[in-house]
Amino acid sequence: METIYLNEGMIVSGIVLAISFILIFTETLHGFHRSKVAMAGAGAMILVGQYYGFYSPDKAFEAIDWNVIFLLASMMAIVAIMVSTGGFERLAAQIGRFAKGRQFLLMVIMGTAVTLLSLLLDNVTTVVIFGPLIVLIAQKMKVNPIPYLMAAALLSDTGGVATLVGDPPNLMIGSAVGISFMTFLKHMGGIVLVAWIGTLFALKFLCRKDLSITPEGTFEEDIPYKDKSLWTKSCAVLGLLVVLFISHDAIHWQPWMVAGAGLIILVLIAKHVEMEEVMREVEMPLLIFFISLFIIVGGVEGSHFLQYLGQFVIGFVEQDLLLATIVLMWVAAFMSAAIDNIPFTAAMIPILLSLEAQGIDITPLWWALALGVGMGGNGTHIGSTANVYIVTVSERLAKKENNPDLAITPLKWAKIGFPVMILTLVICTIIMYFFFDFYATPFPRTS
Question: Which pTM was predicted?
């Protein structure tokens, strides 16, 4: 493999990335919203990229993952229509009555539901569906919604690592290497289950102060639907979406197309629903933030700075494969926490494939990469798309209730998400160490 050397363009792209992310993480100190910071960073990255010749406006446009943007926008619109029916309030009441005020039990119920759905759907889609429901339950119980919102993101991020379709990096790795759905589940299912249980009990400990409070609200009264017919039809459309999301490869539809088709069907069914009202619920600042973030990271990728950093892991491979596996897992986690897991995965895949082409056995490194980028997403509030959406839900609630304490700040996230990331990495490291022969055994490749 050709050695990549550090150059001035890489350094400058890294500086733009670092400054942008420092300002994003410290938005509560300087007062600029993260979308504004990201927009400025994206503009700066395009300008320096043009100057050094590694980036251009066309490449910046191509760097944007429009699948994520349209998927988010369509699902937010679908959920907005479902919220207007009053069905979520009734569902919240049913879950609340079952939990009988026991907050940790409620967290387990919600966390399990979120995770099971994340095994089949992208974790972004899952939290878009559950976010409004969690807020309604917490408001009714008169408890702090932050532990539940964070549990939804953290458990969906963790659980999604178990399957080929649960997290975008998994699909990227599976597609590049030829890993089948069942092979992926066989290798990732057990280790992710242990990490998921660890995450749940870590949340119980880290959120013990909020969870120990006895809820003041109850779910005794019956809550009527605002539009039962539309709720029933919406649930049917959502069920159809689940089927299409699972089979999107077979029908050659990207997830955004599936969500878009669901939205088209729903707006035609709900002919009395005003599109202006629905689109007001679509978080444009969130979409702008992601577009800008993709442009920033795309510039760093274009400068080959990520590949430059990634190649330092390679030195360990021929000397000690077990050590290389563990190092890659931890490096992937911290890089994913800092810059989102998709670009780091995209940078590492060609490096690992080139090693494989040289006849070096790197089988366990594929599993380490999937685990690292998956668990690393929990570390920061921008580590995964699901995290950013949940933070946005909390900020909207804080603004609506005129209570800043309801917003999940970068520091609040770090106090819970970062320890969870470290714990899951420790769990994965221990299991990888003791079952290394299993993960190092070559697996059947699909064509």
Answer: 0.78
